[in-house]
User: Fold this.
Amino acid sequence: MNIKVAVVEGDGIGREVIPEAVKIIKILEPDFELVPVEIGCGKWERTGTAISKEDLDLMHECTCTLFGAVTTPPDPNYKSVLLRIRKEFDLYANIRPYKYYQIKSSPYQPAKPFEFVIVRENTEGLYSGIEKITKDEATTTRLLTRKGCERITEIACKIASQKNTGITISHKANVLKSDVFFRNIAAQTIVKHNIAYNEVYIDAMAYHLVLHPQNYHVIVTTNLFGDILSDLAAALIGGLGLCPSASISEGYALFEPIHGSAPDIAGCNIANPIAAILSTKMMCEWLGKHESAAIIQQAVEYAILHQIVTPDLGGVYTTTQVTEAIIKYIKTVHFVCRE
Assistant:
């Protein structure tokens, strides 16, 4: 199978961390065809278009996309690039794994190590794009469909089955009728798979996730709730610079660090490349390259263990130095495995 990966650096630190991740792809999977695609605010400022039909066509020709970050300017004429991509490819499931790495500089030091996954519906809810603004009021429609609720829960079930864990449905059904709809469909779907589950209101979820993160394994929720909960979870493991993600559909996937374009540190060579590198790990898993994925995970853990990290994690290393340390480890393990 010829694997083509669309590589979108985007804006800000996306232009720094994605090239570092690409270095690792070239070492572990040299047969991947990497196709650069220019998308984002920088392109919009230069051409008036942040993402064109030609860009989308190019992405369609690829197996998947590795994505950096894009800046969204405060201009009503600018349309969200990521929302357009999600709708174009129907990337309905946003998967965000979290693993505690014992970051010494982190103010959060849990009693026990933990690892969990947030499975966020990615195309519906308050991000459906159904909005109206008048002089005196603004409305946003929170659209949930049976299809959307069922298929996001199916993804959660698949992950829970692989990990042999239960599922937590997080919602606000005590207030929102639309969440009664989501909760009922999610529960019905999980029961069909004979998987244990529990329910936690989203506000209580934020509270308990901080106090007892080790009690949760797979959390399924709606779009906005998942978006907010994901950033809270990032703080628990040391920061956004450690957090990868995958947005998937039935036949396509986009992999990206969950951090933004961070224009305040762009060009300083201090952006944390680990989230982008772990996004590459998720891409390898999705493509069935499990050996490469395992090596990337080991290499990242090696760098963190030896405090070879960027300033956001209390380190003194640059973006490129962190990647160099990871690559050095990968080359050692990779070549040993290939012998």
Summary: The two ends are 24 Å apart (CA to CA). The chain has two domains: 1-91+251-339, 107-237. The chain has eleven helices and twelve strands. The chain has a mean pLDDT of 95.
